[in-house]
Structure to design on (210 residues):
Protein backbone atom coordinates (compact mmCIF):
# COMPACT_ATOMS: atom_id res chain seq x y z
CA UNK A 1 0.00 0.00 0.00
CA UNK A 2 2.88 2.39 0.81
CA UNK A 3 4.45 1.85 -2.61
CA UNK A 4 1.05 2.32 -4.26
CA UNK A 5 0.75 5.75 -2.65
CA UNK A 6 4.31 6.56 -3.74
CA UNK A 7 3.48 5.46 -7.27
CA UNK A 8 0.42 7.69 -7.32
CA UNK A 9 2.62 10.61 -6.30
CA UNK A 10 5.19 10.14 -9.05
CA UNK A 11 5.26 12.89 -11.67
CA UNK A 12 5.20 10.50 -14.61
CA UNK A 13 2.40 8.28 -13.28
CA UNK A 14 -0.41 10.56 -14.47
CA UNK A 15 1.02 10.38 -17.99
CA UNK A 16 0.95 6.59 -17.93
CA UNK A 17 -2.65 6.57 -16.68
CA UNK A 18 -3.66 9.09 -19.34
CA UNK A 19 -2.05 6.97 -22.07
CA UNK A 20 -3.90 3.83 -20.98
CA UNK A 21 -7.24 5.60 -20.55
CA UNK A 22 -6.95 7.32 -23.92
CA UNK A 23 -6.26 4.05 -25.74
CA UNK A 24 -9.02 2.28 -23.82
CA UNK A 25 -11.68 4.95 -24.35
CA UNK A 26 -10.98 5.14 -28.09
CA UNK A 27 -10.97 1.34 -28.42
CA UNK A 28 -14.16 0.93 -26.39
CA UNK A 29 -15.95 3.68 -28.32
CA UNK A 30 -15.07 2.00 -31.62
CA UNK A 31 -16.06 -1.42 -30.27
CA UNK A 32 -19.39 -0.07 -29.02
CA UNK A 33 -20.39 1.81 -32.17
CA UNK A 34 -19.26 -0.80 -34.69
CA UNK A 35 -20.43 -3.65 -32.47
CA UNK A 36 -23.96 -2.26 -32.25
CA UNK A 37 -24.14 -1.45 -35.96
CA UNK A 38 -22.88 -4.87 -37.08
CA UNK A 39 -24.92 -6.62 -34.41
CA UNK A 40 -28.17 -5.00 -35.54
CA UNK A 41 -27.31 -5.78 -39.15
CA UNK A 42 -26.68 -9.46 -38.41
CA UNK A 43 -29.81 -9.58 -36.26
CA UNK A 44 -31.91 -8.13 -39.08
CA UNK A 45 -30.35 -10.10 -41.91
CA UNK A 46 -30.70 -13.76 -40.98
CA UNK A 47 -28.68 -14.97 -43.94
CA UNK A 48 -25.72 -12.75 -43.09
CA UNK A 49 -26.02 -13.74 -39.46
CA UNK A 50 -26.01 -17.45 -40.27
CA UNK A 51 -22.90 -17.00 -42.43
CA UNK A 52 -20.87 -14.54 -40.37
CA UNK A 53 -21.66 -15.43 -36.76
CA UNK A 54 -19.84 -18.82 -36.85
CA UNK A 55 -16.85 -17.02 -38.36
CA UNK A 56 -16.89 -14.43 -35.57
CA UNK A 57 -17.14 -17.15 -32.94
CA UNK A 58 -14.13 -18.92 -34.46
CA UNK A 59 -12.11 -15.68 -34.53
CA UNK A 60 -13.12 -15.01 -30.93
CA UNK A 61 -11.84 -18.45 -29.92
CA UNK A 62 -8.38 -17.77 -31.36
CA UNK A 63 -5.82 -16.65 -28.73
CA UNK A 64 -5.56 -12.95 -29.48
CA UNK A 65 -1.83 -12.76 -28.80
CA UNK A 66 -1.20 -14.88 -31.89
CA UNK A 67 -2.72 -12.06 -33.96
CA UNK A 68 -0.78 -9.28 -32.25
CA UNK A 69 2.28 -9.42 -34.57
CA UNK A 70 -0.03 -8.94 -37.55
CA UNK A 71 -1.67 -5.93 -35.88
CA UNK A 72 1.75 -4.46 -35.14
CA UNK A 73 2.71 -4.75 -38.79
CA UNK A 74 -0.51 -3.03 -39.87
CA UNK A 75 -0.95 -0.38 -37.16
CA UNK A 76 2.54 0.04 -35.72
CA UNK A 77 3.72 0.39 -32.13
CA UNK A 78 1.87 3.57 -31.20
CA UNK A 79 -1.62 4.38 -30.01
CA UNK A 80 -3.29 2.88 -33.09
CA UNK A 81 -1.81 -0.56 -32.37
CA UNK A 82 -3.13 -0.55 -28.80
CA UNK A 83 -6.54 0.64 -29.95
CA UNK A 84 -6.71 -2.06 -32.62
CA UNK A 85 -5.81 -4.79 -30.12
CA UNK A 86 -8.41 -3.49 -27.67
CA UNK A 87 -11.08 -3.42 -30.39
CA UNK A 88 -10.15 -6.97 -31.42
CA UNK A 89 -10.94 -8.13 -27.89
CA UNK A 90 -14.06 -6.09 -27.23
CA UNK A 91 -16.06 -5.83 -30.43
CA UNK A 92 -17.02 -9.45 -31.02
CA UNK A 93 -18.96 -9.98 -27.76
CA UNK A 94 -20.93 -6.79 -28.43
CA UNK A 95 -21.74 -7.97 -31.97
CA UNK A 96 -22.81 -11.45 -30.86
CA UNK A 97 -24.94 -10.32 -27.92
CA UNK A 98 -26.60 -7.58 -29.99
CA UNK A 99 -27.35 -9.89 -32.92
CA UNK A 100 -28.77 -12.53 -30.58
CA UNK A 101 -30.90 -9.98 -28.74
CA UNK A 102 -32.34 -8.55 -31.96
CA UNK A 103 -33.02 -12.00 -33.38
CA UNK A 104 -34.78 -13.12 -30.19
CA UNK A 105 -37.12 -10.13 -30.04
CA UNK A 106 -40.70 -11.35 -29.54
CA UNK A 107 -42.50 -11.80 -32.82
CA UNK A 108 -45.60 -10.02 -31.55
CA UNK A 109 -43.60 -6.81 -31.28
CA UNK A 110 -42.35 -7.12 -34.84
CA UNK A 111 -45.85 -7.88 -36.13
CA UNK A 112 -47.22 -4.86 -34.30
CA UNK A 113 -44.51 -2.68 -35.82
CA UNK A 114 -45.37 -4.03 -39.28
CA UNK A 115 -49.04 -3.25 -38.76
CA UNK A 116 -48.14 0.28 -37.71
CA UNK A 117 -45.88 0.55 -40.80
CA UNK A 118 -42.87 1.75 -38.85
CA UNK A 119 -39.74 2.60 -40.81
CA UNK A 120 -36.51 0.71 -40.19
CA UNK A 121 -35.13 3.49 -37.99
CA UNK A 122 -38.41 3.74 -36.05
CA UNK A 123 -38.44 -0.04 -35.61
CA UNK A 124 -34.94 0.05 -34.13
CA UNK A 125 -35.59 3.06 -31.90
CA UNK A 126 -39.05 2.27 -30.56
CA UNK A 127 -39.22 -1.54 -30.66
CA UNK A 128 -35.94 -3.42 -31.01
CA UNK A 129 -33.70 -1.25 -28.82
CA UNK A 130 -36.01 -1.23 -25.75
CA UNK A 131 -36.77 -4.93 -26.13
CA UNK A 132 -33.17 -6.01 -26.69
CA UNK A 133 -31.49 -3.53 -24.34
CA UNK A 134 -30.85 -5.94 -21.42
CA UNK A 135 -29.01 -8.47 -23.60
CA UNK A 136 -27.22 -5.72 -25.51
CA UNK A 137 -26.00 -4.20 -22.25
CA UNK A 138 -24.66 -7.58 -21.15
CA UNK A 139 -22.56 -7.64 -24.32
CA UNK A 140 -21.42 -4.07 -23.64
CA UNK A 141 -20.39 -5.07 -20.11
CA UNK A 142 -18.37 -8.01 -21.38
CA UNK A 143 -16.90 -5.89 -24.17
CA UNK A 144 -15.82 -3.25 -21.65
CA UNK A 145 -13.76 -5.74 -19.63
CA UNK A 146 -12.20 -7.41 -22.67
CA UNK A 147 -11.32 -4.09 -24.33
CA UNK A 148 -9.48 -3.04 -21.19
CA UNK A 149 -7.60 -6.35 -21.12
CA UNK A 150 -6.66 -5.97 -24.79
CA UNK A 151 -5.27 -2.47 -24.29
CA UNK A 152 -3.25 -3.52 -21.25
CA UNK A 153 -1.82 -6.54 -23.05
CA UNK A 154 -0.81 -4.36 -25.99
CA UNK A 155 1.00 -2.01 -23.60
CA UNK A 156 2.75 -4.90 -21.92
CA UNK A 157 4.29 -6.28 -25.10
CA UNK A 158 4.90 -3.26 -27.34
CA UNK A 159 4.71 0.13 -25.67
CA UNK A 160 6.84 2.63 -23.81
CA UNK A 161 3.98 4.19 -21.85
CA UNK A 162 0.88 3.12 -19.98
CA UNK A 163 -0.04 0.94 -17.03
CA UNK A 164 0.66 -2.21 -19.00
CA UNK A 165 4.17 -0.94 -19.70
CA UNK A 166 4.71 -0.18 -16.01
CA UNK A 167 3.56 -3.68 -15.16
CA UNK A 168 5.90 -5.37 -17.65
CA UNK A 169 8.73 -3.02 -16.68
CA UNK A 170 8.32 -4.03 -13.06
CA UNK A 171 8.35 -7.71 -14.02
CA UNK A 172 11.50 -7.25 -16.11
CA UNK A 173 13.30 -5.45 -13.28
CA UNK A 174 11.95 -7.85 -10.62
CA UNK A 175 10.40 -4.83 -8.95
CA UNK A 176 7.73 -6.69 -7.00
CA UNK A 177 6.32 -3.60 -5.21
CA UNK A 178 5.74 -1.87 -8.56
CA UNK A 179 4.09 -4.96 -10.03
CA UNK A 180 1.80 -5.32 -7.02
CA UNK A 181 0.97 -1.60 -6.92
CA UNK A 182 0.06 -1.38 -10.62
CA UNK A 183 -1.91 -4.63 -10.41
CA UNK A 184 -3.82 -3.32 -7.39
CA UNK A 185 -4.74 -0.09 -9.16
CA UNK A 186 -5.91 -1.93 -12.28
CA UNK A 187 -7.96 -4.41 -10.23
CA UNK A 188 -9.58 -1.65 -8.17
CA UNK A 189 -10.55 0.35 -11.26
CA UNK A 190 -11.81 -2.65 -13.22
CA UNK A 191 -13.71 -4.08 -10.24
CA UNK A 192 -15.39 -0.78 -9.40
CA UNK A 193 -16.60 -0.20 -12.95
CA UNK A 194 -17.62 -3.85 -13.35
CA UNK A 195 -19.72 -3.72 -10.17
CA UNK A 196 -21.52 -0.61 -11.43
CA UNK A 197 -22.15 -2.15 -14.85
CA UNK A 198 -23.32 -5.40 -13.28
CA UNK A 199 -25.85 -3.57 -11.11
CA UNK A 200 -27.20 -1.73 -14.16
CA UNK A 201 -27.31 -5.02 -16.05
CA UNK A 202 -29.32 -6.71 -13.30
CA UNK A 203 -31.79 -3.83 -13.09
CA UNK A 204 -32.35 -3.89 -16.84
CA UNK A 205 -32.99 -7.63 -16.80
CA UNK A 206 -35.25 -7.29 -13.75
CA UNK A 207 -37.39 -4.60 -15.41
CA UNK A 208 -37.52 -6.53 -18.67
CA UNK A 209 -38.74 -9.71 -16.94
CA UNK A 210 -41.71 -8.01 -15.30
Amino acid sequence: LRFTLELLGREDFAGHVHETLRAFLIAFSISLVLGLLVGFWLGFDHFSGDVLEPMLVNVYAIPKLTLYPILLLVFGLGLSGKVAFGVLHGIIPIILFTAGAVRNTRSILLKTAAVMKLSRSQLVRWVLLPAALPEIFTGVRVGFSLTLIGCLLAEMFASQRGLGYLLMNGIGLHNIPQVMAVTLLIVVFASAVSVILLQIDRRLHSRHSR
